[in-house]
Specification:
Elements lengths: L1 E10 L2 E12 L4 E5 L4 H4 L1 H11 L8 E7 L11 H11 L9 E3 L2 E2 L5 E2 L4 H10 L4 E5 L3 H4 L6 E5 L4 H6 L31 H13 L3 E4 L6 H7 L9 H13 L12 E2 L7 H5 L9 H4 L4 E4 L7 H5 L2 H6 L1 E6 L2 E6 L3 E6 L17 H8 L4 H4 L4 E4 L5 H5 L6 H19 L10 H5 L5 H13 L4 H18 L6 H10 L6
Parallel strand pairs: 3-4, 5-8, 8-9, 10-15, 10-16, 11-12, 12-15
Antiparallel strand pairs: 1-2, 2-4, 6-7, 13-14
Helix pairs in contact: 2-3, 7-17, 7-20, 17-20, 19-21, 20-21
């Protein structure tokens, strides 16, 4: 006898449909799974066998073949256990489950259904493929219920399948998981950053336009503290953006209660290029994709390997990571704000400090980790100093709530001009050329381009920065002072 079941497997961030075909034939008892399964799928034979017996079903002592179609697609993970077991029960005549139903879940030896990652992406794919319902574990029910137009059936045990197929049990629809998109109030407050007027302004401009930021200064000056407060002044995610972030977190098994805010990722400097931008076989997302629509913070930037940093050059420009492996190519989203912090030299004091003991060659080697091509892609370069005793003991600075109000107003102006979900950092070259400059501002930019020997990319980034400064000021045209501020924000020696 032959029976089929519908399920899905994760392929990068996408869910691919899989048709499980199980045949039960006469012959020597055996259980074979074909169709390019990985080790976790092949081990489903033992999990399915034990789960069926422990739930009161009969495991047929015949020749059993489970084919996972299409055979050319690699299947990974234990999420196919439930579909294989239901197809086997149907093929052996113990069950008959009608309708177009997708099944996703891992089986324990006692028959309980365990959660699997990526259920949100799988539920969306099931709806697009015309499935009427999806069967998941009880732990995955709230995640799957976020997808409208799809019935969600939650199982705690494989034994409940018989009652479900016979129509004797109708499980209640789970409550959808809520995405809390307004998390700024619960984050650390920018008022904790004492002094550092230039750094606070750089943070506000970067947040208002979605620009990348590099902070250079001695240890303990407040670089890491400032970076951790940046999410508190960013505008809340739109509904579509929050769903994008949730989908990525779901595939990586990180979706939980309180999701919906902008992610903040701070990988250690020992991370590999594959860990930062994605890789593996099959290719999976890295920290850059996990920071999508949020902040990627690289502390101690010059301690990272140079090839790891160079891997960020293309994603910073395009907002996508292209991961190519033998027989596999994936494109992963990574539209993030890059925020980096670095010491001026290995000892951290800087060459201008008389107590600095670093040799000139050691300083050049340390700073060479950041190539000129990557530095040219950073919008804001902020040099900071140690705050004075009066600043440390003085009153708290402006709160995140006050700064966030100006940032949100600036982002709303950008969205009216560029479209929903876009910021000045994402302007194309054609849109940059459409910026309206006063005559004095255009003259200053042209003189700076010639005198400071800016690259064409740096010229456009200065214009994007100036447009953000103008948006914060609420002006339509970019004036002389706003171009000057944008040029100053790109100077590493500015205070």
């Amino acid at each position: 006898m032959l029976a089929t079941a519908r399920t899905f497997t994760l392929d990068g961030l996408a869910a691919r449909p899989v048709r499980v075909e199980v045949g039960v034939h006469r012959g020597l008892p055996g259980f074979t799974i074909v169709g390019l399964p990985d080790a976790a799928v092949r081990e489903a034979r033992e999990r399915v066998r034990a789960a069926l017996v422990n739930c009161g079903f009969e495991f047929p002592l015949r020749r059993i073949v489970a084919n996972l179609a299409p055979a050319s697609l690699r299947k990974a993970g234990p999420g196919l256990d439930l579909a294989i077991s239901v197809a086997l029960l149907t093929a052996s005549g113990q069950l008959e489950l009608g309708g177009s139903v997708a099944m996703v879940g891992e089986l324990a030896l006692d028959g309980s259904v365990r959660p699997v990652p990526g259920v949100l992406a799988i539920a969306e794919a099931a709806r697009e493929r015309g499935c009427e319902a999806i069967v998941v574990s009880a732990e995955n029910g709230a995640e799957a219920a976020m997808v409208e137009g799809l019935e969600v059936i939650c199982l705690e045990s494989l034994g409940q399948v018989a009652a479900l197929a016979a129509g004797e049990w109708t499980p209640p629809r789970p409550r959808p998981m809520s995405l809390d998109r307004r998390q700024g109030e619960a984050l650390p407050d920018l008022a904790d950053l004492r002094g550092q007027r230039h750094l606070r302004y750089a943070l506000e401009v970067a947040a208002a336009g979605g620009h990348s930021l590099l902070m250079v200064g001695p240890p303990g000056a407040g670089k890491s503290l400032a970076a951790s407060r940046l999410p508190s002044i960013l505008p809340p995610l739109a509904a579509g953006e929050a769903l994008e972030v949730a989908r990525i977190a779901s595939v990586c098994g990180r979706l939980g209660a309180g999701a919906g805010g902008r992610p903040f990722r701070a990988p250690h400097h020992t991370i590999s290029p594959a860990g930062l931008i994605g890789g593996g076989n099959p290719p999976g997302p890295g920290e850059a994709t996990l920071a999508h629509r949020g902040v990627l913070f690289l502390d101690e930037l010059c301690e990272f390997r140079r090839d790891t940093l160079e891997a960020l050059r293309a994603p910073l420009e395009s907002g996508w990571v292209a991961v190519a492996r033998a027989g596999a190519w994936r494109q992963l989203p990574c539209r993030f704000m890059l925020v980096a912090a670095s010491n001026p030299c290995p000892c951290g004091r800087g060459e201008s400090d008389p107590e600095c003991t670093c040799a000139p060659l050691a300083v050049r080697r340390y700073q060479a980790r950041l190539s000129g091509a990557l530095a040219d892609r950073v919008d804001v370069l902020a040099a900071i100093r140690q705050p004075s005793a009066e600043e440390i003991g003085g009153p708290a600075g402006e709160s995140s709530e006050a700064v966030r109000g100006r940032v949100v107003a600036a982002r709303e102006r950008q969205e009216r001009r560029l479209g929903a979900g876009r910021s000045n950092a994402e302007m194309t070259a054609a849109e940059v050329r459409e910026c309206t400059l006063e005559e004095s501002a255009a003259t200053l930019l042209a003189e700076s381009y010639s005198r400071r020997r800016l690259s064409g990319r740096a010229h456009d980034r200065v214009l994007r920065l100036a447009r953000t400064v103008a948006d914060l000021a609420g002006s339509e045209a970019i004036d002389h002072e706003q171009v000057a501020q944008a040029l100053q924000l790109r100077r590493r020696d500015s205070q």
